[in-house]
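Here's a chain:
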Amino acid sequence: LPPTEAVKLVYAEGSHSGATGETIFNYIATNYVNGDEFREGFIDTASLGSGDFVLKVFAADYFGNVTSKEVNISIVP
């Protein structure tokens, strides 16, 4: 498991888990966490140029849960 200080780089605002109510995990997809290594990341849209793109996000956890999602984005000058 990653160090406790890595948690703020994983879960986005609105995430919550508990014994009552719905569990919601919103992730900060640009950040990187793997074991003891973690860092904040960003998407540099200026390096892409103008146009339509598909952002593909993949996530996996220790228990073997895997998911992915595609998001259409447009970069305008």
Q: What stands out?
A: The radius of gyration is 15 Å.
